[in-house]
Amino acid sequence: MDYDEMLDQAVEETPDIEGTSERFEVPDPDIRQEGNMTVFENFQAVCDRLSRDEEHVMKFLQNELGTSGHIDERGRARLTGEFRERRIANAIDTYTDGYVRCSECGLPDTQLKTEQGATVLRCEACGAQSPTGS
């Protein structure tokens, strides 16, 4: 296979990425207090938008906020303690920067992969791989 054929094959196998990173917008957290619990009403929608497993996002939130919690049957995150919307939004932004956006191109077209026991963020847009915090 010569260079031109390899180049054509690479272009065919590259996923179509349209637009810029502005097309990626995470919903603002919808928070309400329920006694000693903070209920993250749209937790499932945020996880869906991030294309990440709910358990992974929940574990990160618990570590970042220094609390315990669980995901209820309706897909809401129930966190022990009182947390303001801004604090949870900041935690989601930190998660997005560390586990969703590519550190090279900034696009959200990434997947978490485990390679040799380490979690790696692999970008489908530019092909970059970078280690994550977990």
Structure described in brief:
By secondary structure, this protein is of the alpha+beta class.
What is the number of strand segments?
7
Q: Which class of secondary structure composition applies to the elements?
A: alpha+beta
H/E element sequence: HEEHHEEHEEE
Instruction: Find the CATH topology of the largest domain.
Output: Defensin A-like
How many individual helices? 4
Mean model confidence by pLDDT: 89
| CATH architecture label name of the largest domain | 2-Layer Sandwich
Strand proportion: 15-25%
Look at the structure and give the CATH class of the largest domain: Alpha Beta
**Biggest β-sheet: strands ordered side by side in the sheet:** 1-2-4-3
Tell me the Rg in angstroms.
18 Å
Q: Globular, elongated, flat, extended or rod-shaped: what is the shape?
A: elongated
Counting copies of identical and different chains, the oligomeric state is single chain
How many domains, in number, for the residues? 2
- Helix % is 25-40%
Distance between the termini: 40 Å
Please outline the major beta sheet.
4 strands, antiparallel
Show unreliable segments: none
